Structure formats: structure tokens, C-alpha cells
Amino acid sequence: MAKKSRNNQRKTAAKYEHTYDKATSFITVKNVRQDRVVGIFDYSKLCEYLESGAHH
Length: 56
Hints:
Helix content: 10-25%
Number of domains: 1
Number of strands: 4
Organism: Funneliformis mosseae
Distance between the termini: 26 Å
Oligomer: single chain
Largest sheet: 4 strands, antiparallel
Protein name: 14473_t:CDS:1
Radius of gyration: 11 Å
């Protein structure tokens, strides 16, 4: 996994951590409370996932 940098990390409501891997152009989404990876997405797949409401 790519080294985390401040610029590539985002936290959403202290529940999810998003890390962008510049080398592969993938975004890893981790549920911080459950300490598990929710998914690894490219940008278009992440948008589809969020729009579908499957994350609730």
C-alpha cells in the first residue's frame, strides 16, 4: 500500500478514511470504527458506488 500523506487523506464524519494511491490512481476507503477496508476504487467506480447509496 502506498505511503499515506496528508494531502491524500480525507476523513468523512470521523467514520471513513479515504487514501489516494498516486502510483495506481486508486482510492482506498476504510471504515475507521470497524478497522476494515470497505473497498478499493478508481474514481469513476467510487462515484458510481456513492451515487448508488450502497454505502449506507
